[in-house]
Amino acid sequence: MNDLQVFFNYLNDMYPEVFNVSVDKISLMGNWCYWKDTHPFQNLINSKQSPISIYKGNGTSEIEGYIYDCIWFKTNDKRIHKSVRDFKLEFNPKRLNSQEELYLKDEILPLLRHVGFTRLDFAFDIEEDLSSYIYFDSKSPKKIGKYIGKNGKLETLYIGSKESEWHVCIYNKKQEKMKELRKEEKAKENGIDYIADLTDWEREQLLKRTHWWRVEIRVRRDKADAEISEEEMFQSFHLVKPCFEISNRIQEQALIFFLTIFPEKIQQMNYRTKKRTEDILLNSSEFDLVSVLRLAFVQNQHQLEYQLKDYLSSTSLQEYDIDILYTSDEKRAMKLGENLDVDNLTFSSNYILKLHHKKQEAKQ
Question: What contacts 50, CB < 8 A, 6 or more positions away?
């Protein structure tokens, strides 16, 4: 099936619904801005009703703790780890309320310079049972791990090493969240005060969705970029659900059946056998789910980029950081020679961006 047909089918809702595309986890690091006397982060810790709590290293040069119990942080002593930046943060942006988000952007991030992402997790939520889908990589083989449930069905599939720059986790999200909900219900039956770690949105999906699977793409280090491309995001992996009836050859049907049980075996085949097997899988499947995920990503790409760059724009920036404040669309427009009005830019309110444009106008 060609890309144009896939696009029209996607518009006509002929594929499983990708009902949410979001950033599920952010890790970032930065260096402290210059300061005099007491460190400004220490002032925040010492302030009345401070939301910052320390659970490790209190009184030392390297501490770990939480901001509002949902933003993890760690400080680094440059005398011990010279090549590591001063401060690290990890959080799930979907679990921050407005107060927590505001504190992060107004109080914490402005203390940092030279900030960059070290890990980004992108979540694709799909209303489809993915337990019978087969994964394969058309270019470079990836390490595969899987967890099979008591019912004999796939519950979790890991693709690639967890420490590599690109790693995918495919799992039954509804099952994971239902376990939390059952704990709450059981506690209520026993008169115990317990509230499950579920957002209102997650509770809504549990009621609304027959199936809820998640494809989570985790990128690290150099690939953890707010402007991550479609190619970098999906690389060369495929997710297909072959249909026995499409093939009329018993050998191909047997191969498809075998790979539904042992999908990792395709990575052990020699080049010619692997290539032929991949063609069989693609030709016997109605669609490649990754093509659907690609379209969903492109549809949400601008929103995801804005969300990530909004965190970076809250840090202490200099004029040489100006690249951060332009979206990929704005960069493409400038490359084509368009003169962009600063007031129409995505981050038009940023002082550094306005200063840069004034200087550019003065040169003309």
Answer: 44
CA end-to-end distance (rounded Å), the chain: 51
Closest by CA to 41, choosing from 117, 116, 115, 107, is 107
For CA atoms 47, 52, 54, 55, give the dihedral sign.
positive
Determine phi and psi for 150, rounding to 5 degrees. Answer: -65, -25
* Residues of the chain below pLDDT 50: none
Give the model's pLDDT for residue 208.
95
pLDDT in tens, 238-256: 999 888 777 778 888 888 8
Q: Is residue 157 within 8 Å of 217, Cβ to Cβ? A: no
Estimate to the nearest angstrom the gap between the alpha carbon of 22 and the chain centroid.
Answer: 7
3 state DSSP class of 85: coil
Reduce the DSSP state of residue 272 to 3 states and report it: helix
Q: Pick from 78, 170, 76: which is nearest to 128 by CA? A: 170
Domain ranges of the chain: 123-298, 317-364
Smallest CA-to-CA distance from 16 within 134, 127, 125 is with: 127
* Encoded tokens for 274: 């692997």
Nearest to 111 by CA among 307, 310, 350, 317: 317
Phi, psi of 345 (to 5 degrees): -80, 155
